[in-house]
């Protein structure tokens, strides 16, 4: 989607590979095209996906390509949120016990993203499939939003898959992962994107 600054062939292919990496290794951060949220949406949204977004530029670009089937966040397959107040992630579809993969994928644009802990971001500990012991991820969202994400993923195998984007970086927390916020924010050990 060139209008969004994303090469529709090479950019989406590289973004897809990065998404596979971050989904299979929660807590890792990968680099994609900038802006990362547009690269992720361009990669994931096709003509059969229902979308919710609060981004007018993205709506126009998807509509111009016939790829915008706009619905409320609670009915969407993919939710793109520039502002976390746009949705209550706990209301998003979580799939079913028979088809847990039908849960919503939520793409957040955040102010910062870092593997490890970072003083200016909300730090969470991740455990579960793809994580060797525990992974630490720092995200530019309020603690209450990360608590809401944890609640939305508390019905495993049902839940939401979450992708965080900041500038040209991306990280993910799939529905199979347990999220906990440490009682104290540890000292900074990684640079923010």
Automatic annotation (TrEMBL):
InterPro entries: PhnH-like_sp, Phosphonate_metab_PhnH. It comes from the Archaea. One of its GO terms (biological process) is organic phosphonate metabolic process. Gene3D superfamilies: Bacterial phosphonate metabolism protein PhnH. This is Alpha-D-ribose 1-methylphosphonate 5-triphosphate synthase subunit PhnH. It comes from Halohasta litchfieldiae.
């Amino acid at each position: 989607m060139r209008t969004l600054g994303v090469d529709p062939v090479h950019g989406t292919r590289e973004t897809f590979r990065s998404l596979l990496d971050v989904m299979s290794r929660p807590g890792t951060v990968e680099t994609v095209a900038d802006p990362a949220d547009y690269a992720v949406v361009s990669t994931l949204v096709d003509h059969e996906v229902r979308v919710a977004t609060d981004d007018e530029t993205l709506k126009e670009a998807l509509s111009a390509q016939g790829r915008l089937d706009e619905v409320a966040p609670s009915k969407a397959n993919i939710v793109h949120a520039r502002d976390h107040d746009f949705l209550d992630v706990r209301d998003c579809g979580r799939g079913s016990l028979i088809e847990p993969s039908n849960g919503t994928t939520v793409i957040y644009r955040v102010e910062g993203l870092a593997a490890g802990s970072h003083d200016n971001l909300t730090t969470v500990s991740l455990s579960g499939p793809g994580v060797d012991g525990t992974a630490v991820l720092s995200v530019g969202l309020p603690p209450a939003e990360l608590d809401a994400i944890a609640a939305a993923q508390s019905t495993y195998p049902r839940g939401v898959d979450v992708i965080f984007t900041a500038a040209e970086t991306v990280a993910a927390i799939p529905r199979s992962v347990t999220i906990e916020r440490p009682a104290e924010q540890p000292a900074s050990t990684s640079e923010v994107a």
